[in-house]
Design goal:
disordered C terminus; binds dinuclear copper ion; 6-stranded mixed beta sheet; 206 residues; elongated; alpha+beta; Immunoglobulin-like
């Protein structure tokens, strides 16, 4: 029976500890140095990597953003698809896209090679803007207006899939972006097949 009491403040008896092997010390050193590199990368990547949203980012009342979207629709509407307005803004315009359970409003008609400021926000919960089949992802957060500078460099009829679970109709939340070829006079040798944006990640401020 073990009757001896031990305070825990004293080392136990016996050869219970020996100094770390040199290889282990080296390994801990490498791991620590790498931790510091990764730690430094966080602020560095924000400024140098173009990883965080570099466009406009500000707070907005969801109702105000929705009103602005409706104004945008009224201004540039060119048609509709089963009740969803199709909106064709001029090059350089501020474009408004509202996410809500469970739709993306409106349908956007953009021109290849033209630059736009795409404003994204949500009326209710977090949604995920994911341009299919192109690899563009962005988190759409209620209360924030993200103004992304985008320049479509591929024409086509794209879908916006919601990639953030937002409720029972999440899987039906599909929007549409139509990119027309630039007018013949302004053709460029476009060889890439991706849409460039200033941002391609999820995240940002909450
Ligand atoms: Cu919206 Cu999932």
């Amino acid at each position: 029976m073990h009757t001896e009491t031990h305070t825990g403040l004293e080392s136990p008896r016996g050869n219970w500890w020996k100094p770390a092997h040199k290889a282990e010390k080296v390994w801990v050193g490498i791991a620590f140095a790498w931790c510091m590199v990764l730690f430094a990368m966080m602020p560095l990547w924000h400024w140098k990597g173009g990883q965080n949203p570099s466009g406009i980012r500000r707070r907005v009342e969801p109702t105000a953003f929705f009103a602005r979207t409706e104004e945008f629709i009224k201004q540039y509407k060119v048609g509709d698809d089963r009740g969803m307005p199709i909106v064709q803004p001029p090059a350089g315009a501020d474009v408004y896209l509202t996410a809500m359970a469970f739709q993306w409003r409106p349908i956007l008609k953009l021109q290849k090679g033209a630059q736009y400021t795409l404003h994204l926000s949500s009326l209710d919960v977090n949604h995920g803007f994911s341009l299919f089949p192109i690899n563009v992802n962005f988190q759409v957060v209620p209360g924030y207006d993200y103004g992304l500078r985008v320049r479509p460099n591929a024409s086509g009829d794209f879908r916006i899939m919601c990639n953030e679970f937002c409720g029972i109709g999440h899987h039906t939340m599909v929007g549409r972006v139509i990119v027309d070829d630039a007018p013949a006079v302004a053709t460029t040798a476009a060889t890439t097949t991706t849409v460039t944006t200033t941002v391609t990640t999820t995240g940002g401020v909450r």
